[in-house]
Specification:
The chain has a single domain (6-99, 130-182), classed as 2-Layer Sandwich (archaeoglobus fulgidus dsm 4304 fold), CATH 3.30.2170.10. The protein has a seven-stranded mixed β-sheet, sandwiched between helices. The chain has helices at 47-58, 73-76, 81-88, 104-110, 114-125, 149-158, 167-182; strands at 6-14, 18-27, 32-41, 63-69, 92-96, 131-135, 138-145. It is α/β, with parallel strands linked by helices and 183 residues long. This is UPF0215 protein C444_00807.
Length: 183
């Protein structure tokens, strides 16, 4: 991958009813060259819209990939990766860092309202399957839309200089945590 290729990483952090979202534009050469911030409702259903709005506000044609930390930020505010891809026209890769049996049981336990549960489960089930990817000797799990499995794995590896967290997600997570601490 060329050193000037850019990815937008989006991560979140929350401490109250509002989750702070941060986006970091990072080059493959590890240089950060842009930020964008927003919020989503903890336990809400606005995370997909938040990510789309962040990309819109950046208004950057040089971003080639969109990496998101996880699939259910802000306490099961489930992202619709296909909707994000359709809206942004960017390849979207969701990266998680731990093995899990999935979110269905956790979603059922977290909410009382049957309609809320069904809506979240429908969005969750509509997402691509998670696939393990080896990165620097560690395993991460990815879901991707708008890019094939092999290319998505290559993007994650290219933006991960060490450890298993791609640099755009690492920087975005630090920024989101800083915002949440100010709250």
């Amino acid at each position: 991958m060329k050193s000037g290729a850019r990815a937008l990483g989006v991560a979140e952090s929350y401490r109250a009813e509002t989750s702070q979202f941060a986006g970091a534009v990072v080059r493959a050469s590890r240089v950060a060259d842009g930020f964008v911030f927003s919020t989503a409702t903890v336990g809400g259903s606005d995370a997909t819209e938040t990510v789309c709005e962040m990309v819109d506000r950046l208004d950057r044609e040089d971003i080639r990939y969109l990496l998101v930390a996880g699939l259910a930020p802000a306490w099961f505010n489930v992202l619709d990766l296909r909707q994000i891809h359709h809206h942004t026209d960017l390849p979207v890769v969701s990266v998680t860092f731990e093995s899990s049996p999935g979110l269905e049981g956790a979603i059922r336990e977290a909410f009382d309202d049957p309609d809320t549960i069904q809506d979240r489960l429908a969005t969750y089930r509509a997402q691509p399957e998670r696939r393990p990817v080896s990165v620097n000797g560690e395993t991460v799990y990815i879901r991707s839309v708008g890019i094939d499995d092999s290319a998505a794995a290559d993007v994650v590896r290219a933006f991960t200089p060490e450890g298993s967290r791609p640099e755009p997600l690492r920087v975005a997570r630090l920024a989101a945590r800083g915002l949440a601490e100010m709250e």
